[in-house]
Amino acid sequence: MTTPDSLPVVTIYTDGGCRGNPGPGGWGALLESGDHRKSLKGAERDTTNNRMELTAAIMALKTLKRECHVDLWTDSEYLRKGITEWIHGWIKRGWKTASRQPVKNADLWRELHEQTRRHQVSWHWVKGHSGHPGNEAADALVNEAIDELLEGA
User: Fold this and answer.
1) Which class for 46: exposed (0-12), middle (13-18), buried (19 or more C-beta within 10 A)?
2) Fewer beta carbons within 10 Å, N or C terminal of the chain?
3) Is 9-81+120-151 assigned to CATH 3.55.50.30?
């Protein structure tokens, strides 16, 4: 599927989570374009839920080999609001919050910002654990990644 400007259209569902926060965490992403589907997942031994939410979006966008129109769905308001609203002020203030504190997870926000500049991204929020098929699939990838990490411990 392509847009009128002939960019491929990709729908991405992302999720991140931890067992304990911080604790062992995982991220998952489901990418769909036409008849093509790709699943991505990963885990870290000691991380936070927010870092995993950001990592899911970064890794999904990094996977795309050329510029795309992306509809990215997340159940994280932190991720969606951070990249669509808050980031502009953070950049203007040299990666400081409005209260002049360092932005948490600035390393990942910088990387996500770089990845979004490669694509035309529309950000969408979906309520987590509400039965939305794409979100449920991403959540399952998160849990698979954490289970695999812990089984290999």
Assistant:
1) exposed
2) C
3) no
